[in-house]
Fold these 4 entries.
Entry 1:
Amino acid sequence: MRPYASYSFWLETCGDDLTPRPALEGPIEADVAILGAGYTGLWTAYYLLKRRPGLKVVILEKEVAGFGASGRNGGWCSGKLHLGIDQMIDRYGVDTARRVQETLFDTVDEIGRVCAAEGIDAHYVKSGALFLSRFPYQVPEMREYAALFGRIGFAGRVKVLGADELERRVRVRGALGAYWSPDYASLHPGRLVRGLARAVERLGGRLCERTPVTDFVPGRPAHLRTPSGDVRAGAVVLAGEAYLCRLPRLRRTLLPIYSLIVLTEPLSESQWEEIGWRQRECLCSFRLTVDYLTRTADGRILFGGRGAPYHYASGIADSHDHDVPTHALLRAMTRDWFPGLENVHFTHAWGGPIAVPRDWTPSIAWDPQAGIATARGYTGAGVAGSNLAGRTLADLITGDDSPLTRLPFVNHRSPSWEPEPLRWLAVRYIQKAYARLDERGERTGRPPDGTTLAERLAGH
């Protein structure tokens, strides 16, 4: 058996037995068959079973529930998608952007409600988020970001903090101010995903772990193919997120980009006195290359980022979970943010792939003629995004018309990624160029302006 607890601090401390559940032993039939026992698959099963008790729902998982991003992420329950509010306004108009944003705000609360109702001790706390400006060139972007929410009717839900007010919340070297939103939560991802798996089983769902899916076949019924036999169902849900690109027919639908994380030892009370950060807000800055920080319930600092290189042909492997230069950079950044931690010990380092669609837009889709549903492409915002997707898929599959089924992501189709080697060349170039743009801004004060080749290629 794989040492599943070694894949992340979250799986190590989830408080659950990670011994795999029994694998599928032969062909079976179900009402709904789901590929993947991460957040998307489990939320979909949960809401289907809550709305239609007695449905035969079977979930097939290659490893164990929470093995992928659901058990390895940064602990943010985010009231936004990677697709920004400005991009939603440009694409869908102000009214739709407002409706999507209101739904995302409610989704953060919905996860807290389910944790309370199902007795899932996921260390959920609605802490809010602080988007920090650490360099002068980031201040105008911070103010514009807050102003966008004001222009569509959310002025009361956001606030720009000056340096002094920010310092009363958290003390970060060089911080000039922050945009604050209350509509974020911090949680323990491993406890959430494992607790959700148990909730699904209590409702009558069946989880088959150590059961790889090798292909899917549209039809009525549709099929999930496994080495142990097919699962035939009226609805098949493809909920493997980044791992879906391992299926031949989906190889170019998603790009697996590795996000890596380091974690400190628990800090002393005197260290926390120096830092502040008593409310456990989610923290990040306005870097293009992305950083994200979490204060854990046991008093550690998690620092994550996207510096790991893309692997040729969308490669996913355990060896990619660790990248020595990137993990070293994240440790250095932690000490840069908090100079008093120059001698702090780091206890954990891990990583995993997130799924990036070609247009950076998530998709929630159901084709009743083919019997195939899917939700994917959260681009790192999947803790809350997957809950929204699970509720939406439950409505689509059961035929319940709802406001969720009219969201702009429903039945959205992203273009395919370019074939190799173009994909590798372009993505690696963009990764390096974004890092240079961040370094230039910090050195010269010149902000990214959207005109560089890398920014045009990313085009999202």
Note: The two ends are 41 Å apart (CA to CA).
Entry 2:
Amino acid sequence: MKIGFIGLGNMGSAIAGNLLKAGHQLTVWNRSPAAVTELAARGAVAAKAPIEALKGELLFSMLANDDALREVGLDGALLGQAAPGLVHVNLATISVDLAHELAEAHAARGIGYVAAPVFGRPEAAAAKKLIVIAAGTDKDIARARPALEAIGQRLTVVGSIPEQANLFKIAGNFMLAAAIETMGEAIALLRKGGVDPALFIEVMTTSLFASPAYQGYGAIIVGQKYEPAGFKLRLGKKDLGLALDAGDRLQVTLPLASLIHDHFIEAMASGFGDKDWAALAGLAATKAGLPSVA
């Protein structure tokens, strides 16, 4: 398939690479040129402007937040120039409000739209082990399915309304943040009491909490290996904010999300903003009077 790709950060570059490996024809654009150059060396076409990525059968986008998506023009300005029959697959974690707005903007211009946020860090993206959560019309999902199946280990369709996939992803990231917060507090308690946190994590994550989230983030927290960031803490703060916004929109109270969001703000004020979001645990250590990487 002829696919355009906008947004080549750590995740986007890895995903685009897997689309190339699957044999798709890729046209790529990114604000910073280095990632474009690297993918062009592997066979992608380097776009000189974002609009060139909207001339194929599919457009993939992986941008950091609502503002980045608007700045590129994917909320309307570029859509009027898209190729007929284009389906836009938006991989980003964005607000439910913007997801609703995008669906309407695309429909008004006769462009297909699929929300397909993913669970997984850059290393999982590179290894094609992402969990892809998709929502959109049956027709749009069918068009995008071959490409979506080329980037992850599981594709789950959660509804026909695109914003449902975004709500699913926001709820999942809230759960991940809660796991990080829990382990950070527990490990701070153990360190303060002289108990080996590595042994604790080994026991817990091979028995009661035997899951990739606890295993992966537990190891990062014990080792305080917060750089390089697979997912920056400031983006975690953004996602908890999206959860709170969705809760307000749907009249669902999220007291734990509110607490963790406040802790993200504290962690950013303490210098953790560009570290991995597992560095939220560093805030718990600091507040306990323990040394922490900052």
Note: The first strand starts at residue 2 and ends at 6.
Entry 3:
Amino acid sequence: MPLQIYNSLTDQKEPFNPVHEGQASLYVCGPTVYSDSHLGHAKAYVSFDVILRYLRFCGLKTLYVQNITDVGHLMGDADEGEDKLLKRARELNQEPMAVAESYSRRHFEAMDLLEVIRPDISPRATGHIPEQLEAIEKLLEHGLAYESNGSVYFEITKDPKYGELSNRKVEEMKSGARVKVRSEKRHPGDFALWKRAEPRHLMRWRDPFSGWGYPGWHTECVVMSSRYLGEEFDIHGGGMDLKFPHHECEIAQARGLEKPFARNWMHTNMLTIEGQKMSKSSGNFVTLFDVFKKYDPLTVRYFIAASHYRSLVDFSESALTSAGISMKRLHQTVRNLREIKADGAKPSGKYFEEFRKRFCQAMDDDFSTPQAIAVLFDLSRDVNTLLSEKRAEPEAIVDAEHLFSSLGGDVLGIIPESLEASQSELQIKNVMEVLVELREYFRENKDFASADLIRERLQKIGIEFKDLPEGTTWEVTDNN
């Protein structure tokens, strides 16, 4: 089955047919750098990182662009609030660009810890003001935008397809639904392309409208995606919260500028915290660096990858703890494989090939990572049986390790190249060796009640003994 991607614009899965054969171009909306990245950012960027990795695994040459919004993200649905970065700069008593630089660095530091591959290009909104002004002037020439009191707005009633992505109708966007509509707008849904700047506004640029101004939020991605990926590219992605108004406004401008634009629109679903939407005002908000103080970033990555990118994910400490336990089960199997010397054997592809096929079938179905991880656990069970044999084929050992490294490592990013056992893991392994020996002692002395008691107590905490002709092994089960 060829790769199928769920296209948010058509609400259905479609075969992936890239603009240029053998290549894949991706644009994903990046962070607004006015505060530390949070769990919602991790949900989006880990998901798209897996997508990027799989496209590369399939042999496609990729170009990945993810922008940095360092101006123009106005608060409020009506584009009439204060710039988020300016507000934060005032709170910190810093220059806006100093705030943007600081949080940009911290964002990439957090992504590095999550093993998220850095974009090929990370363009900034402030670095593309001329292109935004050029696009705005063209929209004015085409009669799709208008100037009002030194600001420029896109007139949504001039675009008959406006609302197509988010399934909204222009006539239902009534005045006063949530905020008071500025009188300079012709329609409450019209969105700002450019805003007039007051004399003391810290972030402003020369413009042909009022003399000084600054961009709205929605034009930057239109010009930057086209600038680096071409007038038509393969995938435009972002979180579900960007569907409206951001992506809807992007599509409207692209139509107005006569750009083919993105073939596929992909949206990751939201992340909640114990059933509640993340919100700074309610205190239900967790930054990534706060999470990393308690949990391994790789555990966070596994937690996200274990759900489908279009699924709602609920974060809790118990869920993250369970994710960590599951991930360590895989890691232990891989660690055991890597400890075996296979006498120079190289991957042959003769063993376990059905697992590779099943993994790819799952990923080809709109990047179904839960099913892909399930395949790795099935592989782990077969491998543990193999490892219990005294004379396992060296090629089989190498094939298994190679599969884990390529599928779990290169694609999912949850199995690193180096898997050093922690001190606590080494202690657990030593304790289990003692328990195996103690149980064997009881059995040899026909004290079966004591031997069974050890097995039963371990079963209750999710550890299973396997009695084989070659000896007794143990593994962590799903019952923990």
Note: Residues 175-179 have pLDDT under 50 and may be disordered.
Entry 4:
Amino acid sequence: MRNLWGPLSPLGLGIAALVLLADQAHKAWMLYVYDIGAKGTVALAPFFDLVLVWNQGVSYGLLAQRTELGRWGLILFAVAAAIALVFWLARTTSPLAAAGIGLIIGGAVGNAVDRMVYGAVADFFSLHAFGFEWYVFNIADTAIVAGVIGLLYESLFRGHKKVSNPSKM
């Protein structure tokens, strides 16, 4: 149990829970209250639309799975990744890294819940400009990207010890 809990685990898992709650509440609202499926594409700005896309793959629709075995494979992959991230979270000493890991866990679990409940991930946000269309995404995807950015920032700019006198190397 010691390997599953560290000083920043409450921070990371709290963020994961908030992401999961926000993601699933937003998806439920978009699907059942706003009924985006019946509305089609809703333009909110010249560069931003709401639209319903069922993603059967991972990012950008890669590795699309159209079978039950493939769908459950992606679910198990997300669960395994979340468990591995919980172990990493237990060892981290940086609040930024803990927050990044929490964002990724919450996003991964949110998308895994979609796969279990709907058979695919519900995506809604479409950004486009100058003839270029970004992939359609959701709150869970945004959290995963923000978490990765936070971890990269931590690794590149804050995670390395500074050498005070390089000539002593």
Note: The two ends are 40 Å apart (CA to CA).
